[in-house]
Amino acid sequence: MTPEQTKKFKYWQTRTIIVSMIGYALYYFVRKNFNTAMPSIEATFGITKTQLGIFLTLNGVIYGVSRFINGFIADRVSARKFMALGLALCALVNIGFGFSDKMALLITGTAGGSEYITALTIIMGSILLLNGYFQGMGVPPVSPLMTHWVPANELATKMSIWNMSHSIGAGLIFVLGALLVHHFDNSAWRLCFLVPAAISLIGAGALYLTLRDKPSSVGLPELETQAAPPAVGEKKETTSDSAYHKAFLRRMVFGNPIIWVLAVTNFFVYIVRFSMLDWGMMLLPGSKGVSVAVAGIMVAVFEFVGGNLGMVVAGWATDHIFGSRAHRTCVFCMLGAIISTAIFWLVPDTASAWVLAIPFTLIAFFIYGPQALLGIAAANQATKEAAASANGILGIFGYASTLISGVGFGYVADHYGWGSTYIVILAFAVVGMLTIATIWNAKGDGYEAAAKFNAEREKKINLQA
């Protein structure tokens, strides 16, 4: 690139990272708002923890399926349009959730009783399923966006910064939800859906107007893939061919054992993360005796401070200490998460909120490193040709974890108490650390393997000709 092109590229790279960060933070506004409303929904309608857990599980499973499906779509369509459309649809279904009690009233003709609660539960669950699917349109377009705008050797650091988006979004919505519940008491559950939805609708329009898919969209040359010879990107008529893409996916994604190890590890990482994040507004008051308002602030600090610092430090360590081998960083992060969770569990409930906040925030510091890095590792292993597809697999494993962190967690809390939930979290964290350790010696990216695949395919084509 010329100096002028380099300057323009840097501007658009920074703009893409910032705009997509804001956009994905807003996805969390219309996703984690349900978690902020859970205590109010339980108190207002008498819905049990197990039922709330079922909501979380169904939402998580459909989200994982959606990320898997949309991962393949996002590799083939405009990332800008796809991401904006998903956010707008999430906002609309959140508006519907805000009036779910009115829908149940229209159906049953009564505002109470078992028939009303059954109808309300079905309506809420159905809307959450829709929201879960539309939420799955948020991450997939980011993988091709980032791999088109960020070189592979900078991806861990810059994606770790980008991954602050969900911590910012979740942190802000937990603060907003805590303030609404504190000010309006349990009647605030409706506002927890309507206010974030209005903000997100505006954000969807901004995403569409300000994002650009790749450098060529603004008249700039595309990035050259770092460890791959020109054969990977030279034959445009070949790389755009459907048969080529399917063969590439078979080799670099579905037939790549590293992708599957990363995916299984993601399952365990998300159990730890969601157990603390999704249930924080109930776990903290239930097991440590803090108020709902204080719990909201602690969960926000968990996201803002612990999560953001953990992702940035883990990204820096990956690029500067571990030679861009994100999987090695993840081993140490998982060990830190295990130790921090054990300490938090053992701190007595008589301790002050400040004392409780330290190990609780450290859990986020360590678990959000792998949460960010596993996706980066998958994108690098699959290369920019199939980054979204690889992350689709990680997504379905990650959100399959809600079978444990959702209904499983709620069932354990209902029948065995909050103390038993910590044992579950620790057990899965240990298994996660052992899983990621199995690929300690793996290379940092798959561009060399992609070059080999292209060379083999080129040779085969030439022989056939």
In short:
This protein is 80% helix and 0% strand. The chain is an all-alpha fold and 465 residues long.
Pattern of helices and strands:
HHHHHHHHHHHHHHHHHHHHHH
Largest sheet: none
Helicity range of the residues? over 70%
Number of domains: 1
- Strand percentage: under 5%
Briefly note the structural class of the backbone: mainly alpha
List segments where confidence is low: pLDDT < 50 over at least 5 consecutive residues. Answer: 226-240
Q: Measured on Cα atoms, how large is the radius of gyration?
A: 22 Å
The CA-CA distance between the termini, in Å, is 36 Å
User: At the first level of CATH, what is the class?
Assistant: Mainly Alpha
Q: Mean pLDDT, rounded to whole units?
A: 86
State the CATH superfamily name: MFS general substrate transporter like domains
- The geometry reads as globular
The CATH topology is given as Growth Hormone, Chain: A
Instruction: Kindly state the number of beta strands.
Output: 0
What is the architecture at the second tier of CATH? Up-down Bundle
Tally of contiguous helical segments: 22
